[in-house]
Amino acid sequence: MARCSRLPLVAVVLLLGVSGAVAEEAKVNTIQDVFRHLRTCWKPPPPAKARPLDITVVVSFNRSGDILGHPRITYESAEASDNDRLQYRIAVMEALQRCTPMPFTDAMAGAAAGRPFAIQFRNRKTSPPTQERRA
């Protein structure tokens, strides 16, 4: 259990301790632009390092587009191992580093500052929905 409780700490230390390059993209002017911008920075761990899983992080930004406070993992696929979780938490924090500061327009900076964003990083292949058959 102690090993599992260290996972968020490792991810936060990685986020705070490693400087990353800022992704140079167009200005972020809408909520959809925030998610699009983050998708350009997402690089899931290779399958040899971790099985695919879905993970959600809640993060807030200040007016200048830097991360405000500490990102918080709120969901991980239930079947993930401790190693899978760790590898994906690291990948999420690296994606956030690559994408920050978020290049907000002035209007979006005011609207987004301090607001939490729940960002889903989906990496599992889901089966197509089954057709319901009625008698």
UniProtKB/TrEMBL annotation:
Return the Gene3D superfamilies for the record: 3.30.1150.10
Keywords on this record?
Answer: Signal
* Xref: InterPro entries: UCP034077 (IPR014587)
Which N-terminal stretch is annotated as signal sequence?
1-23
Keyword Signal (UniProt): yes
- Which top-rank group of organisms is this from? Bacteria
Record protein name field = TonB-like protein
Species name: Bradyrhizobium sacchari
Lineage, please? Bacteria, Pseudomonadati, Pseudomonadota, Alphaproteobacteria, Hyphomicrobiales
